[in-house]
Amino acid sequence: MTKRLSTIDPKAELYFQISPYVYAANTPINAIDPDGKLVIFINGNHYGEGGSRRYWQSGWVRQRVSSGIDESRWVATRDFAGEVMNHLGDYHAMYVDGAGNKMKGYHPLTTLLSPGLSGVGAAGRTAAGYAEGKASAADIIESLRRTGGAITESIKVVTHSMGGAYGKGYVQAILDYARENNIEGVRIDFEADFAPFQPGKQKAVKGVPTFQFSNDNDPVANNKLLGSPFEAIDGANVTTDSGKNKGHSIFDFLDKVKNLPAGRYKVVNGKIVEDE
């Protein structure tokens, strides 16, 4: 599958035969811009938009046919990932499909009948995230900016819904790979989980500041019948919103983006403080 960006890659002339909108010849993990900071977005359940920026956008397709050539293009009217990057000042992103076993559809009955199924159960999604994180860790770490041989670029992780559990496995795998290979300087600034599904069955990765954003009226992530009653992620800083119109959509959290730490943070005595 070809992964597309919303802007033309400045190095597009090197692989014009593919598409000027394809980043790094469609190998973004292997060629993340070393001069930018990395924000990893991990989506939840989806119906075809997983592992792409489209999951984090809403919009419409502008159709135009000129001289027999279809020039239709996607027009984003809301862009959660874009808002996050604007707030953080980090504009290089990686999109990971966190739907567990890559289920292309989700139905409540699946949870009720098979709560331990990979892709539905938090443990299965965490394990799936760990496996993919281990497979991608070397390329991700290699892409991080260095000064004098030392890694100076950090990683930020943003998840939604089922991507929360997946993200914790993914983050742990990157840190484990670095430790097992004696790689110093690999740092996860924070993990932000929006509407995490089954939060009570998750635990923040040790040493990684974790933020949980939940809506009281979320019909999915705060639903006992779906196996996901509202609970706090163990070790997370929790923010809730009781707004009647606040549900499960990632766009219901646009007003929470401003709460993400734009600097570097660490946990001291259970509190998240700025790391000078």
The separation of the N and C termini measures 41 Å
CATH topology of the largest domain: Rossmann fold
Helix-strand sequence: EEEEEHEHHEEEHEEEEE
Strand neighbour order, sheet with most strands: 6-1-9-10-11-12
Largest beta-sheet details: 6 strands, parallel
| Helix share bin | 10-25%
Shape: globular
Structural class per helix/strand content?
alpha/beta
Total E-strand runs: 14
How many H/I helical runs? 4
Rg, rounded, reads 19 Å
* Domain module count: 2
Strand content: 15-25%
Average pLDDT figure? 79
- The CATH architecture of the largest domain: 3-Layer(aba) Sandwich
InterPro entries: Tubulin/FtsZ_GTPase_sf
Protein name: RHS repeat-associated core domain-containing protein
Question: How would you explain this protein's 3D organization?
Answer:
With 276 residues, this protein is an alpha/beta fold. The chain folds into two domains: 1-31, no CATH class; 34-52 and 75-274, 3-Layer(aba) Sandwich (Rossmann fold), CATH 3.40.50. Helices cover 20% and strands 24% of the residues. The protein is built from four helices and 14 strands. It has helices at residues 80-88, 108-113, 122-143, 163-180, and strands at 38-43, 57-62, 65-66, 69-70, 73-79, 92-97, 146-147, 150-151, 155-160, 188-194, 210-215, 237-241, 265-268, 271-274. Helix 3 (122-143) crosses helix 4. The radius of gyration is 19 Å and the shape is globular. The model is unreliable at 1-36 and 103-109 (pLDDT under 50).
